[in-house]
Amino acid sequence: MKSKSFNRYIGLLILILNFLPLHSEEEIDIWSKNQQDQIESTEQNTSLKPSINKKIFNNSENNKVEIENEILENNEDEKIYGIYDPAKNDYDLNMWSQTNAEDVRLSIKRINKIKLSKTAEKIFEYTFFSFAYPPKEMTDKEFINLKINWMINNKRTDLIENFLKQNNQFHNKKIIIQHLVDVNIAQANIKDGCEKINFVDKNIKDSYLEKFKIYCLVFNDKKNEAQLLYDILKEQKQSDKFFDDKINFLLGITSKTNNKVKEDNLLNFYLSSITIEDFKFEPKKQTKKIIWEYLNAANLIQLENIEDKEKLKNLEIAANQNQFDKQKIFNIYKKIPFDLNSLINANNIYQTLEGSDSRALIYQKYLLSDDVENKIQLLFLLDELFKKDNLSNVYVKFLSDRLEELNPNKVPESYKDAVKKNIIFEENLQMGKIKYDDKILHRSKLVKYFVEDENKKKIQKELNKLYKKIKRNKKYFFSAKDLALIESLNFDGFQLPKDLNYEKQLEKYEVPSNLMQLAKNNETAFLALKIVEIIGEDEPDQLDSETIYFVIHLLNQINLKKIRNEILISALPLRL
């Protein structure tokens, strides 16, 4: 025993010496040396530091900066955090400096209630996650929290990882690292979760992350290193009886473990599930959503007794709340036994049944049907049964998918509108090919300037040629979209025909005065958020022409060309 104890203390002494700053290059291999070198290199080489020396930016006329090409000094009094270089999106570091904190808080609160379209979300990201100083009367800590909360609530793990790579030390860093870890545990993807622990540095002291780091060493068969870190954790009084029991079992120090299931956090629940033999757990209404996600991913939810209607009801409710895999509900329905007579007469018998039994019977009848009209009738009947028990969310996507599978040529005329109405059309990430039409200004080849970054001389010639053609058409009407295009070309330095008096055309379109005031006040970032609110769930091509015009006008006023072009590319051309 004395020999073992002596060896352990020698090991601890070596580990502690390795962690001293003078020997940071020789740290214990908690993760692979290559990965550690990569992280250290990123921290040393990235110019997007959390602390910015203000003097560096005063040489620029517009206070803009190519952050990627500068080596920035630390200034503890003024810190900025973000992902994007503001200059790349036509912003600067003071993009929020003219805006009151409360205005930003209220705007973010409204945006959080909107399911943003792809274009609106892209504009929001460019704006909110550019490096910049906080709004007036807002601390950098509150500004960071707004960013962190948005990334977590919108499940943007891609942005979270970029944020961690671009920023060294910041408020609540441990919260988003724990979120990344939990996301991977919830997906039963422990290998990737253990890679995310690499974001933990020596400045973060968090028992949850330290415990997971120790488990990852066990997972990667590095038990000696795990034992050393575990001893340090105990010395610092950061461990607890539950973790002691589980880690000693996993390290092989003890042969038995407590069968208690702890669900106060995902790590404890995960350790319970992998250490208890024949692990079984009955989730309840109050069970955390992330634990439901893990149970789903690890296939730990089973309805062993098909007659257990109460458990099935709880699973249906969980699926309706997006806590349980919806498809598994239909798999359970398929297993509920019905005799042949019940299936044949399902349309009459279902009314004598309750809840899940009625839905299961109609679902099985649907699976047996081969007539399109009959299938449609059963699908809509099933829709009514889900609505009756307030379980519509379980069924809406299933209904859409099944209707979309039908041959449209075989759908009876009387059902075509209902079928179309209930299909959820997913937005295609790829916009269609542009079809240019030189009879309409905003659909002409002039759009190539914004889409393909066409040569300005070539576009100037095209503009002169096209205007002569349109001028001959006495009936041509300059639409709001035409004016948005013309104004943008004029703003970018193109020479408009002298007799093209487009300013007079603009008199019939009114830009909201409150938004114009934001432009005059140079509240560029806040105005961009207002535009995000205006676009909302729609893509720009779904907005009315007048809205497109005044949005483009505002973006021209504050010189946000990249965002302007994003909207023009979506709103103007005709696509196949």
Give your account of this protein's structure.
The protein has 29 helices and 2 strands. The protein is mainly alpha-helical and 576 residues long. The chain has a two-stranded antiparallel sheet. Helix 28 packs antiparallel against helix 29 (561-571). The longest helix is centred in the N-terminal third of the chain and has 18 residues, at 2-19. The radius of gyration is 31 Å and the shape is flat.
Number of helices: 29
What's the pLDDT, averaged over the residues?
Answer: 84
Q: What is the spatial order of strands in the main beta sheet?
A: 1-2
> What's the number of extended β-strand segments?
2
Keywords:
single chain; 576 residues; mainly alpha; two-stranded antiparallel sheet; 29 helices; 2 strands; 1% strand; flat
In short:
Among the domains are: 321-421; 434-575, no CATH class. 55% of the residues lie in helices and 1% in strands. The chain contains 29 helices and two strands.
Topology (elements, then pairings):
Layout: H1 2-19, H2 33-45, H3 101-111, H4 118-128, H5 140-153, H6 157-166, H7 173-186, H8 190-196, H9 207-219, H10 223-235, H11 241-250, H12 266-275, H13 289-297, H14 309-320, H15 326-335, H16 340-344, H17 346-349, H18 355-368, H19 372-388, H20 392-405, H21 416-421, E1 434-435, H22 448-451, H23 456-471, H24 480-491, H25 502-506, H26 513-520, H27 524-535, H28 545-557, H29 561-571, E2 574-575
Antiparallel strand pairs: 1-2
